[in-house]
Amino acid sequence: MVLLQIYLLLMMKTNPKIVWITGASSGIGEALAYAYSQQGAKLIISSRNKERLYEVKTACKGNPLDIHVLPLDLDNLDTLPKKVVDALKIFGKIDTVIHSGGLSQRSLAMETDLTVIQRLLTVNYVSTVAINQALLPSMLAQGNGTIVLISSLVGKFGTPFRSAYSASKHALHGYYDSLRAELANKKIQITIVCPGFIRTNVSINALVGDGSAQNSMDDAQANGMSPEVCAQKIIKGINQKREELYIGGKEVYGVRLKRFFPRLFSRMVSKAKVR
């Protein structure tokens, strides 16, 4: 395994991959930018926060000429196809796109405005479709490509206070499992990553019922895995061509509990401290 990792690292440095990361201004996306730049990849980093993206670029270990800032707003679907055109012009192609941008939720289902539900679905799910519909033709033309979705463990099961967020992540699995089947005879890899509690600002920025930010850190999030460790596990899973990847602590066992002991899991999750 160590020899394989050394081989992959040498290959990336001699034949650098071009990786586009959304949500790269913080959290898992930021950690992925640092990890890939250290491996010698050429990067396009995107989010709404242009100033923060330039801070991330400065902190990356790679050649600054190999790291390009491309601001975008996942809320604004109409602009995304043009952003794909702009991204393709930077290095001439894109080998890997990682959809790390997104929003979470911390509110009861019956207390969540419809506009909040629509925004969660737009940012977490529909935006990825808009980008990939514009990007996929170029990957098919070049004969290969990798699409990575940062889903969540609640993309496999639901928990209290995350109804619309969970729905948006479930949508990723349904859509991209179908797309993977449609592209079975093409050299397009689709990897869906399901993190559990990762120590990021996702709970601070999470939307409550009226659409405002929660502005506080969940205990479970604060005690979760570091984004740096998570990023390394994601890259390893991508290199192994994993279709689905679960990352976190004991919360990852929820996937199997839900599958094999659904009633027990339902009782446990209804009592779980998830905020």
| Overall structural domain count | 1
Question: What is the CATH first-level class name?
Answer: Alpha Beta
Category from helices, strands and their pairing: alpha/beta
> Whole-number average pLDDT?
93
Question: What's the tally of helices?
Answer: 10
CATH topology: Rossmann fold
**For the largest beta sheet, what order do the strands appear in spatially?**
3-2-1-4-5-6-7
Describe, in plain words, how this protein is organized in 3D.
The chain is an alpha/beta fold and 275 residues long. The chain has a single domain (2-271), classed as 3-Layer(aba) Sandwich (Rossmann fold). Helix content is 47%, strand content 13%. It contains ten helices and seven strands. It has helices spanning 2-14, 27-38, 50-59, 80-91, 114-142, 163-182, 219-222, 227-239, 254-260, 262-271, and strands at residues 18-22, 42-46, 67-69, 96-99, 145-150, 188-195, 244-247. Strands 3-2-1-4-5-6-7 form a seven-stranded parallel sheet, with helices on both faces. The radius of gyration is 18 Å and the shape is globular. The model has no long low-confidence stretch (mean pLDDT 93).
Quick gist of this model?
The protein has 275 residues and is of the alpha/beta class.
